[in-house]
Amino acid sequence: MQTVDSLDPLRRAIESLRRDGPVALVPTMGALHEGHLTLVREARSRAARVVVSIFVNPLQFGAGEDLDAYPRQLERDCALLEAEGVDLVWAPRGDVMYPAGFATNISVSGVSEGFCGASRPRHFDGVATVVCKLFNQVRPDTALFGEKDWQQLAVIRRMARDLDLTRPFADAIIGVPTVREADGLAMSSRNAYLGREEREQAAVLPRAMKTAIAAIESGGDVAASLAALEQALLAGGFAALDYAALADAESLAPLTTRGDRPMRLLVAARIGKARLIDNMAVRPR
Ligand code: PAF
């Protein structure tokens, strides 16, 4: 496994990998966990060669967010990736990704505006900008992202369609189902911010979501089901709910009744120092 941090060696390495067949990219910010490794395994099953990028992207962190505290552990991450048979780690230096004078912003309207976009202004501009750069740098045949960040996936797919990206084609952007801990909590690098008691309490999130989904799927009122979800979170130790909503799975348009197209229940809530997000499918009528 090779690790590179600047563009010339990256281009040479990609050129050589491409001779062996299709290349898959798994973009990450490091602090890898089983969720990322699942993406890597899926990438290996879909392509001859696998590239993983590791870059803590300052553009997607707002003022007062956890950019400085975000866990950085490149050596450990590389060891995990080597054991998974990854071919290349692209870990660009900050000045390589954003050279002096960098002045471009990619902003995807619509899907990026509600939910996390409302409480984290410019977050998805930062994600779209860095992912577009990663796609241009690596030019992968396919790219894999966790479904845990459902809105992020929708934003990236929209960007790839709108910008006519050919590597990867929008259809080759693959969402991989969320990997969960034994108690149902979605895996996330930010779970590391939870103390022991908070970590135990956090499991109320997936449980309350399942209860709300069961209520909605059996014909219950959507607003009442979401209100009950909020109550369950607050009673279970969460400090605040950022949002809980039923939305169209693709456009992310909020829904007040159960629809006849694929839908997601999307939630963001705060516990201790962490802001946890999760989403689950809701069966159409
Ligand atoms: O999901 C993440 O880890 C990041 O948002 C991504 C896609 C690597 C862009 O920085």
Automatic annotation (TrEMBL):
Top-level EC class as recorded in UniProt: ligase
Domain of life assignment: Bacteria
Record Gene3D superfamilies: HUPs (3.40.50.620), Pantoate-beta-alanine ligase, C-terminal domain (3.30.1300.10)
Catalytic residues of the enzyme: 36 (proton donor)
First-listed, main subcellular location of the protein, grouped into a coarse class: cytoplasm
Keywords recorded for this protein, A-Z: ATP-binding, Cytoplasm, Ligase, Nucleotide-binding, Pantothenate biosynthesis
GO annotations of cellular component type: cytosol
Misc: The reaction proceeds by a bi uni uni bi ping pong mechanism.
Protein family according to the UniProt entry: Belongs to the pantothenate synthetase family.
Subunit structure: Homodimer.
Protein's UniProt name: Pantothenate synthetase
Organism: Novosphingobium endophyticum
